[in-house]
Each structure stands twice: as C-alpha cells, then as structure tokens.
Amino acid sequence: MNPNDQYFQQQQPGYGAPALGQNYGGMLAPPTRTPVMQNQPQQFPPSNGPNSMNPYGQPSPRPPMAQYGHSPLPPQATNPHQLAQQMGGMNLGDNSLKSPVPSMYPPMNGNVSPAPGSFPPRHPMASNLQASPMPPQPITPGMAPPRPGLMPPMQQQMGLASPQQYQNGPGMDNMGPPVNGQQFASPRPPMGAGFPASQPSGFPGHPPMPFQQQPPVQQQPQQQQGGYDSMGSRYPSSPSYPPGMSGPIPGPNSQPMPSQQQARRLDPDQMPSAIQVMEDDKRSRSGPFATNQKGLVPPLVTTPFVTQDQGNSGPRFVRSSMYSVPALPDMMKQTAVPFGLVISPFAQLEEGEQPPPVVDMGELGPVRCGRCKAYMCPFMQFIDGGRRFQCPFCKATSEVPAEYFQHLDHTGMRMDKYQRPELCLGSYEFVGTKDYCRNNVFPKPPAYIFVLDVSYNNVKSGLVHLLCQNIKSILQGLPRESINGQKSRVGFITYSKEVHFYNIKSSLAQPQMMVVGDVEDMFMPLLDGFLCDPVESENIIDQLMVQIPAMFADSRETETILGPAIKAGLEALKAAECVGKLLVFHSSLPIAEAPGRLKSRDERKLLGTEKEKTVLSPQTTFYNQLGQECAGFGCRIDLFVANNAFVDLATIGQVARLTGGQVYKYTYFQADLDGERLVEDVRRNVEQTVAFDSIMRVRTSTGVRPVDFYGHFFMSNTTDVETAGIDSDQAMTIEIKHDDKLTDEDGVYIQVAVLFTSPGGQRRLRIHNLALSVCNQMADLYRSCDLDTVMNLLMKQSVTKLTESTPKQIRDVLINRSAQILACYRKNCASPSSPGQLILPECMKLLPLYINCLLNCDALSGGSDMSIDDRTFNMFAVQTMHVGASLAYLYPRLVPLLESSTPAAAEDSPLMLPSPVRCTVDKLRDDGVYCLDNGIHMFLWIGLSVSPEWIHGVFNTNSAAQIDIDRTKLLELDNARSQEVRCVINQLRSTRQRHMRLTLVRPRDKLEFVFRKFLVEDKHGDASSSYVDFLCHLHKEIRNLLN
Ligand SMILES: [Zn+2]
Questions:
Q1: Binning pLDDT at 50, 70 and 90, where does residue 83 land?
Q2: Which of 195, 629, 782, 794 is disulfide-compatible with 252, CB 3.0–4.6 A?
C-alpha cells in the first residue's frame, strides 16, 4: 500500500477521540486504495443490527493498581490543537502515539474455506491402570548458601577510562554457593488411611459412561429441564464422609486396599480424565477452524487446529470463557461461571495461519465510530445507501468519510467487503498516522539494552562470561525489520556498585567505558555511540564482549545496586529519544547504598500462613515507581535473575510487571549446568518481542464491560492497558462484567485494539474482533464454556489476591465457586436423579480436577518448602500465561518415552510425540521412563527396572542406579535410543515458552519428592487432597448447596 494512493484527506472533527487527555488520534479520511485482500470468500455472517442507544458502559472505578498505591503517570500530552479538534463525542478514545510507515506485512489472507461450524460431541473416556502406593516425602527447606564475604571493590569511578584499566583484584575461589539445590530430607509421612469407601452404588466395574453424548454445541437445542443431562456426565455417588470431616480427606492412593474394600473404593480411572478429554477433542476437532459465526466454541488449546479467519479473531488471539452469554445478568450470576477473555494480541501462529494483514489508510487513518471510537470492523453495519454505519458497540451511527464510501449490494453489504480486511476479517492491522504517535512524531526503531550485573556472584557463576560469549549469536536474532532505513540499535551497561556505559561506535578502534559512580542521581554520560547498529558495530561489540569478562574477572564486589542501573538504561533511551527494552541480568539483593536499596526479609516460614502476603508484597514502593516511570517512557524491563540467595523478587520484579516484561529465574546459576537455558531464554526473548510502547483498549457492546485486568502492564486510568513491550508469549486476562440485559439478535461484540510500535519503528494498530452468542437457557451457557479459559482467569484472579487475602480465603472462594457452578447445573440443567449422583456438565467435567490442581499449584500454595523468591517467580510467571501455558502449568504433561506404541502417538500429533498419560503415580511403571513438564520445570523420571540396553544407550552406564543425576543435559551418544530421547525432549521443550532445565530423577532419589508434587492427581502431604478426594469433597459441597 502506497500512501500516495490515497486521494483525499479531509478531516472531520467528529472522529478523533480524545480520552482523558489522550487519544489514538483519529482523523478520518478514507482511503481509496484498495488494500489487500483479494479473494472472495464465502459469505460472511451478517452482523446483527444493533438497536438500543446505549453508550459505552463506564469503566469500573476500581483502580487497577490499588494495592501499590501509586499515582498514575501523567498522561501523555496531547497536542492542544489536535485535542480541540477531536473533542466531542464521548471521551472514550485511546491513548495516542503515532507513526505510519509503509507497511511490511504480507498482503492479505487468502480465502478460506469455511469449516463446518458444528461442534462434535466430546466423548467420555476411560482408561485403566492400577494404583500403586507411593507416599510422598516431605521436603526440608535448607538452602541459602552462605554469601561470600565482602571484598573491597576495585574500580575507578567516574570519568572516561579505557577498559584495560579496570582489572584487579585477585580472583577468588571457593566462595561459591552450593549448586543445585535444596536438600531434602525424606521422612515419610504417615500413610494415608484408606479411603472410607462408601456407596457402592452406581459404581460397577465400569466407568460410568455416564454421559449421554452432548449434542452439538452450535445448535441451541431448547430442551426443557430434565432433558439437559444430555450434556452432562454422570458419576457415581461419592463415598460418604466420616461425620465431621472437613478439609482434606485422606486419599485412597497411599496403600493398596484390602481386597474386600477394593471393589468399593473409587477408582481414579473412572473419574473424568484430562488426557481423555484432550484426546477426544483432538480426534474430533483437529484441522481447520473457520471463524465464520458468532459464538463458535473453538477447539481446545491442546488440539492442533488451523484458524481460518472469516470475520472473528482466532482463538490464539482471543479466547472467551464462554461463547454463549446469558441474556440476563441474574442468570449469569446464578451459574457463577466466570466471564472473561484471555487475549494474546501477538500470539505466534501455526503453520497455515495467515498473519493479520496490514491496512494502510494513508492520511485518513483508520475509520472509527464517531462516538465510542471503535475501529472499522466486520460488525459495523452500513446503512443509508452506504453513507453511514452503525456501531455494534455503542449503537451510534457515524458518517462514512467520503473517501471511504462504497455502494452496497442488494444484501446491504459493501461491494468492497472482501477487498478490505477490516470489513471481512477478525484480525488485521492499521498503519497509524502521526496522531497515533507519541508527541505526534513517528517513532524510531526500539533499542535493546543489555544491563549486566558484573559483581562477584555473576562472575563467579560464569554468567558474565557466558553471556558475553553468546551475545553475538543472540544479536543475530534481533528483528531486522527496517522502516525508513533505520534499524534497531543495541547498547551495553554493566554495574555492580557503580554503573558503566560503553561507547561502541563503529568508528572507534576499541570500545570505551564510562563510569558513573554517583548513583544517587543517574545521568547518561554518553550521548553518542552508546546505541549502535549491531551489524555496523560488530567488531567493536566483539571486542567489548572479550573485554568485559576480563575486566571483571577478579571482581570481589558483593554489594550491588539495581535501581540506578535500570535508571541508567532508562536515561539512555530518553537521551536517544526512542523506546525499547532493557534485559537486566541481576544476581543479588541490592544492598549497596543507593536508591532502591533493600533489606533482607527472607522469612520463608511465613509462606502458606496468613501472613504470607507480607513477604509476597513489595517491601518498598521504589521499584513500583521506577517501573511506572519506565512504563511511561516505553522502556520494557526483562529481569533475568541468577541468584544464589534471597533477592526479593517480590520487590524488584515490580519493574518487569509494570512494564510488560518477563521475569526469569535461575537459582544457583552455574554456567555449565544452566548456561544453555539462559542463552535460549535470552534468544527467545529478543526474537519474540514484537510490540513496543503499546496501549490496549477493549471495547464491548452494551450490557457487558471489562472490569478487571490481569497480566504485566500498567494502567494510568481504568481502561487503557499500557505495556512498554509485549511479546508473542504473553497474554492479558480480562474479567468481563455482565450488568445489563442482552438480546439474542445483538449478541455480544468485543473489539481489542492495540496501538504499538513494531520492532522496525512503525506505529500500527492491531485489531481483534470477536462476536459471542446470547442465550436464554442456562444449559446453553454450560454447553459453550471453555474450561481452560475459565481456569486461566480463576488462576490469575486467585494469585492476584494473594497479596490482599489469606490463602484460606482464596481457597474457600475457589471451592465455593466451583460447587456453585456445578450445583447450579445440577439443579437447573440435569434431569432428576438420585442426589447421590454427581452430575457434571460435559464442558466442565474437568472443573473439579483443575480446581484441585490450582489449589495445590506452586503459585497459589507454595509453602515453606520453596523459597520466597521461587514462590514469587511462580506468581509472576502465571500472570502472563496464555491459555495453553496455564493449562500445562495446572495439569503437567507426563509423557511415557518407552511406550512408543501408544496409539495416538504418530498420527495425531504433528510432533510425533508419544501421547501423555494421567498425572498420577499409578501410571508410572518401574520399567518405564517418563518426561514430565509444566512449562517451568521438566523432569525425566527413570524407573529402576528399565532395560540395561536402554540405559546404556542413553546414559552410557550399566544401570539406572549409576546415572549421574546431576547432569542437566543428556549425553549426545551416537545411537538410535539416545537420538530419539534427545529429539523428544527437544520437541517437548519447543512447545513451551521458557527453556526448561532437565532434572533427572529415579525412584527414591531425594528430588523425587519434588517430581511427585507435579503428579497432580495424587495427594501430597497433609494439606492437599488427591483428585478423587477432592471430587468427593466437592460433591459433598454441591449436595449441601442443593439441600
Ligand atoms: Zn461506537
């Protein structure tokens, strides 16, 4: 699209839209060019005509960041002229920043053939395995290695100095921390008492095949009460509880049951299985998924599908917890099913999926609703011969800018509908005009600054050396998109107690270092030569990467700063007048005298208690303020923490949280063991950051509105979600409130608009649209739920509450809510049956399982067996997870490596991975090898009876007992077994966003306890329930509610 193509640009005052002093610009002038898109797809479902006249709902008053009590950053100043021009209409515009540039995206999507919209029934399933006893072992804390003593710092301060001058200090050996880990004691807990078996009723030896199949979701059957159990699953009654029992119930999994009881006890294999649900969905829903109807329930996240965008955004970008929303708020409330969206605006696509096309409307800019400022989309309805359009979000009608005018055909569709992505696709981008840019100036390409702690810990662990050694290849992954000839630039800062900047200008013979010793008031001493094109300055950077490790090789500095180092990076971006990101490699609690100095408060015994929130909340607001300042300037911070003692991640991690950054943690980092992981994480981080300086606004049709936001971002008002940078792995979760009646003709419309700067420096808007159905029957709601999305929302909500409520309160809320969801279904949608029977809605039959997983996950309930930093790390990690990641986190993937004959292995999975099995010790065979991962941890469990040939082939030892389990990498042996295993591990890893360290475990190794914690269907310790126990417990709660 050539900007010259436009003829015409006229401004119409009615279209801009300032909001709270900011706006996304919004002029209007239509384009003429016919953009992209060629192909004439099939018909697009007509958007429904809106009627009522309700303006956009008001944002909720709840201040999103309340708990940290900061005042929001001042809004970006808007050009007064522009403001005056754009005022008018509702104040709902977005923040502004701007910048157009020629588009670089591939042109349009091809057409897509519509896929059948029907939703096949999900099948019940059943598998079998025998239970085997395996009591967990408690873990003993222990950790925190001694910190090295203080050593005299040795560096000059201030002024220019050539790098060579900085050396000194004898090296220190032997101060390092222990590696790898914790120590585990292994007392055995008392064995669980058997399970008080109970009503044998209904539990014949067969899986209760309970469910009659669920009818296709799409056709809203209007059955009457009683007819609905067709979509439910029936389970036999739960065992009765001993009177007075509350809390966790002893599990059945600990001891083999006496045989006469065996028949009576609940068989875990008869409980709904996550693996079976995934397999069934895979079988019935793999392949193309066409988004041509509102309210289409997408395949599960675990199913391989290819989105065909036919007017709604694909589920990789936006997932809703329900696709059919009850017309009445009261019905929604009764069911207690959470309503939310998980949005991954820049999600990676699968092969065969088209990236959203870029539409350049030239000076006209995107066409928007005159009132609510929603962007042109397939849901807008053209009327009055094409001269006006009605907005489905606020119902207002707006004039079509002359340049955008097009005649309508006999069906009322614009003749150019299929030539314009914004009229026929769910996802697309617009090039932003100047009005969408910060200060009305087109941005420069974002910069990447490496900020490296070169104090003793990082030097000793090998991190400094490793990173410098790999920078060259990491930089090769930098996006090289170039707009107007400008490319991304990089810069380097090192620090310990002072901050060092480097001049890497390509014209220098060698790099130069500048030291700022006065860290109280950080400034940028180097205006020219700090940020450079990594290709032009390649030689200088190469030299610098050799010199840095040499200069600091003998560092004995153990007192470090952090705040000033981040501030230094921020100042560098400010001086260069560009946005960007800092990759900060930090190792210890910042205790040096400087802004942001912290105290140690490593009171891990508080974890799991009512007081845990005190250590899970920041100890000072310094890092929140710094994070907000960075966010306001478009400076994203990614924290790579390689600590071997308490670093107070809960406090320092705020800088990442508020800027849209990620937190990575490498406890007891040792270059030889964790190096690959760190380098791969950095590489991915650099490659995946796709959108800088972003502002997201979610618009909804009337009757529903976004109220709560979860993720890593900053909000200076109640509607705009700002991040300094968002990557393709990140998601934001939004809770939607339903507070007004909806009508079926209208449906529920959602538009997500993200204004951002591309890595090449182009200002663009990415728009995602999704239409949901409205239902009058509760059963339709239960039939259209996406449980994985429900869990993502519940998980983020619960974790967020950790810093305000007690663990018990959070737990109770989760249990009560799930009981209410299921009781409401039972009461209103299932046919009458014995109260002893547990009836679960088909789409939610795994709710009890997943809730139990959530109650026991590290982020929510990690106790004093983990460090506070590890707990906090889990909490941060969870907040940015998309639905696939949160599902894996709750229900880890357990893959048998030796059972390659598993049926689904080859055909279903594009990766040819063996099919996973249920996460329970019952599935582990002593002659088997299993790989378990949850996106953060990865274990390889090796049974003691595995064939010696296999062990020899893979580990080059004669028995499992001889394997060196401290390794984190498999040997690269030249034989088929070794290759196959490494290949599977690599494939499993490639599906996750973090490079997981591989931990080898054998039965009875001390680390097996940790591994066992991830077998989430089992009971672990006194404080948790097994899946079966929990299901029974929940059933009891449901019965209480029904009585
Ligand atoms: Zn509108």
A1: very low
A2: 195
| 348-367 pLDDT tens trace | 999 999 999 999 999 999 99
Contact 357, 111 (CB under 8 A): no
Cα 702 to averaged position of ligand 1 atoms, centre (Å)? 10
Three-class secondary structure of residue 382 per DSSP = strand
Same domain, 488 and 557: yes
Final residue in a domain of this structure, among 376, 394, 425: 425
Last residue of a domain, one of 687, 703, 718: 687
Cα(383) to centroid(ligand 1), Å: 15
C-alpha distances in angstroms, 915 versus 276, 282, 903, 931? Answer: 11, 11, 8, 11
Residues 416, 469: one domain?
Answer: no
Ligand 1 centroid–CA 374 distance in Å is: 5
SS3 per-residue string spanning 297-343: CCCCCCCCEEEECCCCCCCCCEEECECEEECCHHHHHHHCCCCEEEE
Task: Give me ligand 1 centre to Cα 701, in Å.
Answer: 9
Q: What's the gap in Å between 396 CA and the centre of ligand 1?
A: 5
User: How far is the centre of ligand 1, averaged over its atoms, from the C-alpha of 565 (Å)?
Assistant: 45
Average pLDDT of the chain is 78
Strand 490-495, strand 447-453: pairing:
parallel
Residues 388 and 465 in one domain: no
Is 791 a member of any domain? no
C-beta atoms surrounding 645 within 10 Å: 21
Q: Ligand 1 centroid to 398 CA: how many Å? A: 8
**Residue 387 Cα, ligand 1 centroid: separation in angstroms?**
16
Distance (Å) from CA 721 to ligand 1 centroid = 19
- CATH at residue 973: 3.40.20.10
Q: Which amino acid is at 162?
A: S
408 Cα: distance to centroid of ligand 1 (angstroms): 21
Distances 156 to 550, 593, 677, 899, 1028 between C-alpha atoms, Å: 16, 17, 34, 61, 64
Q: What is the CATH number of the domain that holds 389?
A: 2.30.30.380
Same domain, 525 and 645: yes
Residue 57 alpha carbon to ligand 1 centre in Å: 11
Q: Do residues 454 and 576 share a domain?
A: yes
Give the integer Cα–Cα distance in Å for 245 and 242: 6
Least confident interval from 97-106, 318-327, 543-552: 97-106
Whether pLDDT at 145 is above 80: no
Q: What is the pLDDT of residue 1015?
A: 96
Local structure of 639: helix, strand or coil: strand
490 and 580, same structural domain?
Answer: yes
pTM, rounded to two decimals = 0.78
Looking at the structure, tell me whether residues 474 and 396 fall in a common domain. no
Q: Is residue 639 part of a domain?
A: yes
CATH of the domain at 593: 3.40.50.410
Q: What total of structural domains would you count in the chain?
A: 3
Q: Which residue has the higher pLDDT, 469 or 70?
A: 469
Condensed to tens digits (0 to 9), the pLDDT of residues 551-581 reads 999 999 999 999 999 999 999 999 999 999 9
Rounded CA gap, 893 and 996, in Å?
A: 13
Q: What is the pLDDT of residues 474-517, one digit of tens each?
A: 999 998 877 777 888 999 999 999 999 999 999 999 999 999 99
| Cα distance between residue 661 and residue 725, in whole Å | 7
- Indicate whether 646 and 545 sit together in one domain: yes
What is the pLDDT at residue 232? 54
Surrounding residues of ion ligand 1, Cβ less than 5 A: 369, 371-372, 374, 391, 393-394, 396
In a domain, 240, yes or no: no
> ∠ at Cα 909 (903, 912), nearest 5°?
80
Whether 385 is in a domain gets the answer: yes
Separation of 14 CA from ligand 1 center, angstroms?
12
Task: Give the structural domain span for 400.
Answer: 361-425
How many angstroms does the Cα of residue 734 sit away from the middle of ligand 1?
20
Using the mean position of ligand 1's atoms as its centre, give its distance from the Cα of residue 375 in Å.
8
